[in-house]
Amino acid sequence: MRYAPAILIGRIVRKLARWRKPGGGSAIPGVVVNAIAPGFLTRTLNSFPGGLVIVTGSSGKSTTTKMLVAAVRAHGVSVFTNPSTANITQGLTSALLEEVSLRGRIEGDIAVLEMDEGHGALIADSLKPRVVALTNVMVDQIDRFHDSDMVASMLAKIAVRATDSVVLNSDDLHLVWLGERLTGPARIDRYGVSAEVLAANPRGLGYSLTAPERLTAADGIVLTRVDGLRAEVNVDGRSYAFTLPARGTHYAVDAVTALATARAALGERFDPVVALAAISSIPPVFGRGEIVSVRGRMVEFVLVQNPASFQLNVDSLEPGTEQIMIAIGSDVRDPSYFWPVDTSPLAHVLIASGSKAFDIALQLAYDGVAVDRVEPDLGRALDDFLLLDDPPNGLKTIVFSADSMRRTRTHLGLTSNAEEPV
Known about the structure:
Elements: H1 4-20, H2 28-36, H3 40-45, E1 52-56, H4 61-73, E2 79-81, H5 89-97, E3 110-114, H6 117-123, E4 131-134, H7 148-159, E5 165-169, H8 173-181, E6 187-193, H9 195-199, E7 221-227, E8 230-235, E9 238-243, H10 249-266, H11 272-281, E10 288-294, E11 297-303, H12 307-316, E12 324-327, E13 348-353, H13 357-366, E14 370-375, H14 378-387, E15 396-400, H15 402-412
Parallel strand pairs: 1-3, 1-4, 2-3, 4-5, 5-6, 6-7, 11-15, 12-13, 12-15, 13-14
Antiparallel strand pairs: 7-8, 8-9, 10-11
Subunit structure: Forms a heterodimer with GatD.
Keywords: ATP-binding, Cell shape, Cell wall biogenesis/degradation, Ligase, Metal-binding, Nucleotide-binding, Peptidoglycan synthesis
Protein name: Lipid II isoglutaminyl synthase (glutamine-hydrolyzing) subunit MurT
């Protein structure tokens, strides 16, 4: 009962925050509880009978976590997770407040959590995860993570706390090096992609430092084919087909990460058929290839968070997409961070918007992309974009950064994963 007062205060703050800002303010209760009860978060996360599973890395955390949760639940395991993708400490605490009892207990066999690499490193010494999954090391959020080696060291602080398994991408050399140097008690479980998949992605998969030679250390789980929404994976010598929530090899890699992590977490209970069926059934995570009906128009949302995801998503757009809007917000502090991205496949953008509208419009112009209009007012740009008749080819497509994604969803009244998913 030691945390009961903090939990009560957090819930009062949550109600006030939601009253003050419907659909927002979700992190404020966590800030308050972490300030008055700093041990609440880690103690609660360490209390699940089936242990704690952490998914962290530069990119792919949200989609991987959602796939992993689906795969584990499909095996009959009760899972607590952070479904809002709130992956920093205050967000994680707010997620706990949704379900924790006054005794500081949460119903569930196991916790599966997406965790920001920086915040995770800060609390790592107090965590006792059973499994830690590492997605990749990329150039990402340069105002926070200015050096890839720094990111790898943060991931190592989290991974070394694992007691059973560290699941890592055997095609990311930073993670290979990390695995070779870990001193904790956990075994290393590796997954990877085939040479054919790499060859089909000539720009690469965004890893900050891909191995100069093909690594063959994947422990029985290898992505072997990607074709639109269809993919195949080899598990211990047997091939399985499955469906992706959105186009792109990066989503297939997320699925394989989730599959390898599910095997590590479930042990002998793991069934790849059950896991892949569950992964095939999930809808896209916020903005990751999400298709929604807004004001009678079908719109595809495409979230870009770093140069690698920007490039992979640009390359994955349906050829001939005629109506594209791009919105880059205040989360991209230095827009030159995106300049390595070749945006020329976009060909024609109707509206460039967001607080960095002129910056992204300039990059598009240098890449030879025609831009019809620059409109910094995101709400006005969205309204005008949605007024346009449906295109003859493809869907209306909005490419946005995380800040613009949140503002877009708020402006359009989309408070859940999708108003009308397709």
